[in-house]
UniProtKB/TrEMBL annotation, chains A, B:
<dbReference type="InterPro" id="IPR000524">
    <property type="entry name" value="Tscrpt_reg_HTH_GntR"/>
</dbReference>
<dbReference type="InterPro" id="IPR028978">
    <property type="entry name" value="Chorismate_lyase_/UTRA_dom_sf"/>
</dbReference>
<dbReference type="InterPro" id="IPR011663">
    <property type="entry name" value="UTRA"/>
</dbReference>
<dbReference type="Pfam" id="PF07702">
    <property type="entry name" value="UTRA"/>
</dbReference>
<dbReference type="Pfam" id="PF00392">
    <property type="entry name" value="GntR"/>
</dbReference>
<dbReference type="InterPro" id="IPR050679">
    <property type="entry name" value="Bact_HTH_transcr_reg"/>
</dbReference>
<dbReference type="InterPro" id="IPR036390">
    <property type="entry name" value="WH_DNA-bd_sf"/>
</dbReference>
<protein>
    <submittedName>
        <fullName>GntR family transcriptional regulator</fullName>
    </submittedName>
</protein>
<keyword id="KW-0805">Transcription regulation</keyword>
<dbReference type="InterPro" id="IPR036388">
    <property type="entry name" value="WH-like_DNA-bd_sf"/>
</dbReference>
<keyword id="KW-0238">DNA-binding</keyword>
<feature type="domain" description="HTH gntR-type">
    <location>
        <begin position="5"/>
        <end position="73"/>
    </location>
</feature>
<keyword id="KW-0804">Transcription</keyword>
DNA sequence: TAGTGGTCTAGACCACTGT
DNA sequence: CAGTGGTCTAGACCACTAA
């Protein structure tokens, strides 16, 4: 029985083995394509197919003119969705209302966010979660791009039914305080959240806005907030790159 | 200023546009590589680079001898981690103890799982979560591959400190009841869970065990269960393919 | 400027799918 | 069987990086 795997599979397997065994360490440069051609007696395209396999697995990263390197892990930002947005935390928070920013600042890193506010029709799935007619409903949309140490970390888009928040400070673009806080000040109190998480490859647009390296999936975290009567007040859609985030929950068994 | 994007970017953008606009519908066959070469006056490799971009985004799927097709969405299985493993659900569950199986069966699909039990050293991160010495500690490991309608859906590996579960039914391979249940019968009651979710591209091994299509990320859900005194009793690591799963949580604001 | 990876061409043969 | 995508070769030129 001869080996039936394609040549570039075997080249990739061999290099992956070197990485797994630690012969090639994170951050270390791989042999150049030219060297690999010689080592494996293969054409350049075949070598490149093998390297492509490894970059697709997130093991290798390469740059024009620089070479190929074993990929380093990021320092992940931990998002604890059981704690984030809790009112007790919010009240004790000193930096003007944004909880995300204070959590990041506590860890010694520098938060920044760009906010854009508009009024428009929500996407169909958001309308459904808010219990609105997708044809006619309008929502106030707050789109934020969140940066840590000047690098983009996440997209966070919040949707509020327009009729609920008319005339509140929410509609001023310069307001960057936590929506939970602003909502509460307007008498709209969220007592329960329904969170849904999906994960997939980024679209081209997300990839560019977040400056994502190849082979980086995103999680889409959709939080719907309800008031005491079970009426939905807000939907927040957060897009988190996989190489920079860990999502955490605490759950009490019943 | 002329557009300087590479040719295969523009070919990919053009085809992506046709898909986004609905000119090409899910399940529909794309033009053959030969036809695309003619349409865009490009070499075959260039056309293939463009198609590769689209398969990397999860938009297109291709098969040798069959052609390339616009990818269809899966029907996702919803995993509600607030409810799963709750004791109240467990007690009212009629099918012999496995909650996952009953949740799936309720939705009219056919669950099946392959279980393998062994005793061995845990990975370092699991040892740390269990508060064990990574050099010497032994754990009972239950590795399951879960299928729905004969297709692999998830990997679920549970780790128990060996000293805690010695002599319990947990160690019998044929036992497939929910670990929460078995633990409880041994007087080990989990009152709190810490869940952590990361998401990344699958390793080769995961990709093969789960028969994953290209461009399918996985979420790794790690649940650590604690008893009343805060002692860790169990770690469960679930590997979920992104094209078949939605993770859900309910959270009460405090 | 030398060396790297990125883009692109023009072929060839193979493996697999359908008819 | 004809037609598809998968693998592979042997070149060429370009864009970028670092010395």
């Amino acid at each position: 029985m001869a080996e039936q795997k394609p040549r570039y599979y075997r080249i990739a397997d061999e290099i992956r083995g070197r990485i797994d065994r630690g012969d090639l360490e994170p951050g270390q440069q791989l042999p150049t394509e030219h060297e690999l051609m010689a080592q494996y007696e293969a054409s350049r395209n075949t070598v490149r197919l093998a390297l492509r396999r490894l970059t697709d697995e997130g093991l290798v990263i390469s740059g024009q003119g620089r070479g190929s390197y074993v990929r380093r892990a990021h320092v992940p930002a931990v998002w604890d969705w059981s704690v984030l947005e809790s009112r007790s935390r919010h009240e004790s928070n000193t930096n003007g209302g944004d909880q995300w920013a204070s959590v990041v600042a506590e860890s010694g890193r520098e938060p920044r966010q760009e906010v854009r506010v508009s009024i428009r029709q929500p996407p169909a799935d958001v309308a459904e979660r808010l219990g609105l007619d997708p044809e006619t409903a309008m929502t106030v949309v707050r789109e934020r791009v969140r940066f840590i140490d000047q690098e983009p970390y996440a997209l966070a888009d919040s949707y509020f039914p327009e009729e609920l928040v008319r005339g509140t400070p929410l509609m001023k673009p310069e307001d960057v305080s936590a929506p939970g806080g602003v909502l509460a000040q307007s008498g709209l109190i969220q007592v329960r959240y329904e969170d849904e998480i999906t994960f997939r490859m980024p679209t081209r647009a997300e990839s560019e806005r977040l400056d994502l390296p190849p082979a980086t999936p995103v999680a889409v975290h959709t939080r719907t907030g309800y008031d005491k009567g079970g009426k939905p007040l807000r939907v927040m859609v957060t897009t988190l790159p996989g190489d920079r985030h860990v999502i955490r929950y605490s759950v009490l068994a019943d």
